[in-house]
């Protein structure tokens, strides 16, 4: 598996182009390019994903396994923000985004880049943005936060500044529930949010965080979603496999396989848990093999062996 890192976007007029840095191995390091192909002649496909957003981390490794079985070389490209990933997808520097939220959470990115992106299909239909607290916290609804700002030190711990979840919290939820001025949305990274959460839970201290479903941390940390009576965090939406424009024409077999994949709650939860927790970093291929052995025959189109 090759890994490259996307380090930024350089604006050229109204367009953006990706600056790719880091080390490449295999085909590209030998002087080749994506068009040179590899494997059994299928070519090279680049999967762009955000490692801290583990819905896409788990599906990226699932697609890597499946595409390699079709004879493709797969490059895994790590990014830290959704914006550069959508830009890279639109410009063809990334071939597939294996867990996009285009319907609501990433709608603004689709407005900007959608004409240069192909939708290969929705693979999960029950994703949702949430505001959450540990189970021991005795409030149950977002509309209780305003009167309890002191309990939470006036802070809501969020994830990356460029995340759709961050935007939804800042522009919709906080003003809708009158939290502007009484709460600060602390943004940094998913890892930093989880560190704050871990520390607070160890001390049984009140804390409120931004979260989403599906996300392994909900079960691991015993989080409960606060009710959202005003619907400020949006409705449930589907997660999609997105590709750069023309991908299906260039790689019809890959597009057909990917378009068949549909996961239910149990299958998706098990996939994410195996990749992130049971096996962990460096053992993703083992996790996918184990998941396929248990669930692969339940999902249309997947190659188990």
What does this entry look like structurally?
With 305 residues, the chain is α/β, with parallel strands linked by helices. The chain has 2 domains: 2-125 and 239-298, 3-Layer(aba) Sandwich (D-Maltodextrin-Binding Protein, domain 2), CATH 3.40.190.10; 127-225, Glycine betaine-binding periplasmic protein, domain 2 (D-Maltodextrin-Binding Protein, domain 2, 3-Layer(aba) Sandwich), CATH 3.40.190.100. The chain is built from 10 helices and 11 strands. It has helices at residues 54-69, 82-91, 107-113, 164-176, 190-202, 216-220, 247-250, 252-260, 265-279, 284-295; strands at 2-12, 15-21, 44-49, 73-78, 96-100, 117-134, 155-157, 184-186, 209-213, 223-225, 237-244. The strands form 3 sheets. Strands 5, 6, 9, 10 and 11 form a 5-stranded antiparallel beta sheet that branches. Strands 2-1-4-3 form a 4-stranded mixed beta sheet. Helix 1 crosses helix 10 (284-295) and helix 9 packs antiparallel against helix 10 (284-295). The chain starts with a strand and ends in a 10-residue tail after the last helix.
Chart the SSEs and their pairings.
Elements (H helix, E strand, L loop, with lengths): L1 E11 L2 E7 L22 E6 L4 H16 L3 E6 L3 H10 L4 E5 L6 H7 L3 E18 L20 E3 L6 H13 L7 E3 L3 H13 L6 E5 L2 H5 L2 E3 L11 E8 L2 H4 L1 H9 L4 H15 L4 H12 L10
Parallel strand pairs: 1-4, 3-4, 7-8
Antiparallel strand pairs: 1-2, 5-11, 6-9, 6-10, 6-11
Helix pairs in contact: 1-9, 1-10, 9-10
């Amino acid at each position: 598996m090759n890994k490259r890192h996307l380090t930024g976007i350089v604006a050229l007029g109204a367009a953006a182009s990706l600056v790719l840095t880091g080390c490449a191995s295999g085909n590209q390091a030998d002087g080749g390019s994506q068009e040179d192909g590899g494997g059994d002649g299928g070519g090279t496909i680049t999967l762009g994903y955000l490692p801290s957003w583990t819905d896409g981390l788990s599906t990226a490794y699932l697609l890597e396994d499946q595409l390699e079985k079709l004879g493709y070389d797969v490059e895994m490209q790590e990014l830290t923000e959704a914006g550069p990933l959508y830009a890279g997808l639109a410009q063809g520097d990334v071939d597939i985004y294996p867990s996009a939220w285009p319907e609501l959470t990433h709608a603004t990115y689709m407005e900007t880049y959608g004409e240069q992106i192909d939708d290969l299909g929705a693979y999960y239909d029950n994703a949702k943005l949430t505001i959450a607290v540990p189970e021991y916290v005795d409030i149950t609804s977002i509309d209780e936060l305003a009167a309890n700002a002191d309990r939470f030190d006036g802070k809501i711990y969020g994830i990356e500044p460029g995340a759709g979840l961050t935007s939804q919290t800042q522009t919709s939820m906080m003003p809708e529930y009158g939290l502007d001025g009484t709460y600060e949305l602390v943004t940094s990274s998913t890892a930093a949010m989880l560190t704050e959460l871990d520390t607070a839970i160890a001390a049984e201290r009140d804390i409120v965080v931004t979260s989403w479903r599906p996300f392994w941390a909900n079960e691991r940390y015993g989080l409960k979603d606060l009710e959202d009576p005003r619907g400020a965090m949006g409705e449930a939406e589907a997660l999609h496999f997105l590709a750069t424009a023309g991908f299906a024409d260039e790689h019809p077999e890959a597009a057909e396989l990917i378009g068949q994949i549909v996961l239910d709650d149990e299958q998706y939860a098990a996939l994410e848990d195996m990749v992130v927790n049971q096996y962990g970093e460096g053992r993703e291929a083992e996790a996918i093999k184990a998941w396929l052995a248990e669930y692969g025959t339940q999902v249309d189109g997947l190659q188990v062996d």
